[in-house]
Input
Amino acid sequence: MTISGDGLIHEVVQGIMAREDREEFLGSISLGFLPAGSGNGLVKSLLHEANENFGVLPAAYTIIKGRKKRMDMTELDLEYLPNKKVYMFLSLSWAVFSDIDI
Output
């Protein structure tokens, strides 16, 4: 679980996807997110999908209830780092939306 905005969630996803055993690991865990950052787009989207209001308490309640939602991820190959992949949720924006949110 993270208590953060989208940035830390992004870093958690990168760490998980860098694991050699990621398929097995992902099959054995569920992730939970409490909104506490300047950008909380993922939590907002997940709570909307669950018909819950946005906030820390509804997010915690959703986690406690054990509600799960599978998500699609985008995999990006970097031309300047051919051996590195970046994984994304929501969208690719190069920080535009974070600046707009703030």
The helical segments are 6-17, 22-28, 41-49, 56-64, 96-101. The longest strand covers residues 81-88. The chain has five helices and four strands.
